[in-house]
Amino acid sequence: MTHIHPSALVDPAAQLATDVRIGPFTIIAGDVSIDSGTEISSCVRIQKGAVIGKNNSIGHGSIIAADPQSLAFDLKKPTQIIIGDDNIIKEYVTLARSMKEDIPTRIGNNNYIMAFVHAGHDSRLGNHIIAVQGAQMAGHVDVGDRAMIGGSAGIHQFCRVGELAIVGGMAKVTMDVPPFMMADSNPARITGINSVGMQRAGLSQEARNAIRKAFRILYHETSLTSDALEKLSELAAAFPEVARLRDFVAASERGILGRD
């Protein structure tokens, strides 16, 4: 059965699965849906527009579906945040709902979001991401699967972090971080490739070698991104990982870290 602490305030219109657990002094609005197995700790606020999946853990003091922090946002708009399954969301995390009614903020599955992390409006976080204590992601940030965002790192709005990329602690990211790369420093720059992460994710030795070659092409063999993309075409035809890297770089609107 659903267990709601007597001190919690839950709007009768909220849709809760039968085995959801709600801790003391938590407040849940009416336009909220929470699926089975999810546990909400104490002093959590879940605001209108939150759609939360199965088997999530949401820590003390967190705010889910927070109002977008933008002077242009109309508080009357029925916008959303959609959170998947099996996420661990620790203490005092703030996850904002979107500014647009037809495009929700999205958090995927199996993510570990540590204390004091912020993900702004219209962000998209994939699956199996680790966001370390105090990481700050502005609005419209896109983080790919299995990426890691270091403690107190700051990611500028509209930036993208590719799959299996690592952003170091306290790094300042103002441009895109390509897949499989490591970024660090303030301002951030590319420092190498995520060899250990790729191995743990099950990429073959051949695929890892291809990523190393792609890294050399991107950062050492060419001075223009257009030339690098052309050189990557043959390698991309043989390795889907390189194809995804090439496509990410080609689609970059802000430019990628480490390049002029």
Which keywords apply here?
single chain, 260 residues, alpha/beta, UDP N-Acetylglucosamine Acyltransferase, domain 1, Udp N-acetylglucosamine O-acyltransferase, Domain 2, 2 domains, 28 strands, elongated
Please characterize this protein's 3D structure.
The protein is α/β, with parallel strands linked by helices. It folds into two domains: 3-194, 3 Solenoid (UDP N-Acetylglucosamine Acyltransferase, domain 1), CATH 2.160.10; 199-250, Udp N-acetylglucosamine O-acyltransferase, Domain 2. Helix content is 18%, strand content 26%. It contains four helices and 28 strands. The strands form three sheets. Strands 1-4-7-10-13-16-19-22-25-27-28 form an eleven-stranded mixed β-sheet, covered by helices on one side. A nine-stranded parallel β-sheet has the order 2-5-8-11-14-17-20-23-26, with no helix packed on it. A hairpin with a 4-residue loop joins strand 27 and strand 28. The protein is elongated.
